[in-house]
Amino acid sequence: MTFVTTITGFAxxxxxxxxxxxxxERRPVFDNPITHVFTAAFFGGVGAYIxxxxxxxxxxxxxxxxxxxxxxxxxxxxxxxxxxxxxxxxCDGTIPRRRIHAIVVIVMAGITPFTFEPDPGIYISRxxx
Length: 129
Prior knowledge:
Organism: Cetraspora pellucida
Radius of gyration: 40 Å
Mean pLDDT: 78
Protein name: 10034_t:CDS:1
Low-confidence stretches: none
Number of helices: 3
Keywords: Membrane, Transmembrane, Transmembrane helix
């Protein structure tokens, strides 16, 4: 809503509240018209404050949104750079370096990724002679 409509709406609400209060007291609704002016001015001021508070909140939300978008963009760039650094350039980006290093460590340690157990009937041990 615009500034003028917000103030006007709150001022009209203030006049309605004053008229309702007088009606509850069973007094004439427009008995003392200056009180309606004061009530309209007070509620118009409340409306102006609420309008300005809403505008400040919208600005703060927009600033926070920009910060979050910038953080998201930096995180995506970091993840892309991290992913590119983990890929071996000679392998055309298909095998990550971590996997290559893991395979090299396994082979150097003598650990095979599969289990191979020879048939015991084929081999004759020295102790059985």
